[in-house]
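Researcher: Sequence recovery benchmark, item below. Answer with residues only.
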């Protein structure tokens, strides 16, 4: 347990500070039920996240069907330390796909109830894929709901958190959002979010880069045959990743360390969001974060040529 989170920096346009890493909780509480046998272990894991080396924990209304927020709420009920916060996201109605102003307000209410709070310091609009950009930004659309929460002082800052670069660029282009969370698109395999990150930076937004391991493959390595961006990896990608592992090994480091530092070294990224599924991952992650990467490695990695990224949007 750390008394203070490590290496905090201001998150522009928000009331928050972030550590270089933010812990992602899409796995947290999955399969648990209130008061059920797995809940206590999940709460202990959440307590470790909230008292560990990093200032922020990232969740969402719909992660683990609401159990991620619920477990974090139990863990935080005795209070969390100064300089620490939970960031969450509004989600569509999963049954109907409705994602309008009313749904955003209700999603916020659900999140507050589960987290045991009355206000949220940073609330993202999450994966607005079930509605068009025009619907979301039109009268009584989801964006109106986000703005209303901010106007009422119930959230300090609003973000857009999603993958598809073209769509997210439209939301960033409105100038209404304080933060960007992109994922799987600024890694050693795929850099398609770079123009988006540059645009957000030029607008003075806070920038989170999530899934530096592509959700799996870059943490587990080519031999695992792991997925990238939550889909099966084609053979050409596994071959490229095996070559990247050789580059890492030649420089005395591991593929996950290289994958993590690719994001950490960008001056435009305020915090890198990494998913963890068990307590020991937190200490492992801190060891990866403090691993020194030789400067020459990056040129050798670039010499491999671009990876055959499976991301097509
Ligand atoms: N639209 C959005 O807003 C959006 C989308 C994607 C992600 N996110 C956020 O970003 C977070 C991260 O994304 P992600 O979890 O999908 O992808 P990720 O961070 O690229 O990868 C997570 C995987 O890395 C492994 N891992 C983590 N630390 C490790 C370590 N020290 N050593 C070895 N393996 C390690 C974990 O393995 P184990 O399972 O074995 O622990 C986990 O399976 C999410 O939890 C979520 O909070 C947001």
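Model:
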């Amino acid at each position: 347990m750390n008394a203070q989170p490590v290496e905090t920096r201001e998150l522009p346009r928000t009331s928050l500070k972030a550590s270089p890493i933010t812990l992602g909780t899409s796995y947290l509480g999955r399969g648990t039920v209130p008061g059920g046998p797995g809940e206590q272990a999940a709460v202990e894991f959440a307590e470790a996240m909230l008292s560990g080396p990093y200032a922020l924990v990232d969740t969402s209304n719909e992660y683990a069907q609401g159990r991620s927020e619920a477990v974090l709420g139990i863990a935080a009920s005795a209070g969390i330390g100064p300089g620490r916060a939970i960031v969450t996201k509004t989600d569509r109605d999963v049954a109907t796909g409705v994602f309008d102003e009313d749904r955003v307000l209700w999603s916020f209410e659900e999140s507050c109830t589960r987290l045991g709070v009355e206000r949220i310091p940073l609330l993202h609009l999450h994966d607005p894929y079930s509605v068009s950009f025009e619907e979301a930004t039109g009268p009584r659309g989801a964006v109106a709901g986000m703005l209303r929460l901010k106007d009422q002082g119930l959230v300090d800052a609003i973000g857009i958190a999603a993958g598809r670069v073209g769509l997210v660029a439209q939301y960033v282009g409105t100038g209404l959002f304080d933060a960007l969370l992109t994922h799987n698109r600024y890694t050693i395999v795929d850099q398609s979010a770079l123009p988006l990150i540059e645009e957000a930076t030029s607008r003075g937004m806070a920038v989170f880069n999530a899934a530096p391991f592509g959700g799996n493959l870059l943490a587990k390595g080519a031999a695992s045959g792991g997925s990238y961006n939550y889909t099966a990896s084609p053979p050409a990608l596994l071959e490229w990743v095996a070559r990247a592992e050789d580059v890492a090994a030649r420089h005395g480091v591991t593929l996950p360390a290289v994958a993590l530092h690719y994001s950490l070294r960008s001056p435009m990224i305020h915090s890198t969001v990494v998913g963890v599924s068990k307590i020991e991952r937190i200490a492992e992650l801190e060891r990866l974060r403090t691993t020194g990467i030789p400067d020459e490695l990056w040129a050798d990695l670039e010499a491999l040529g671009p990876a055959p990224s499976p991301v097509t949007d």
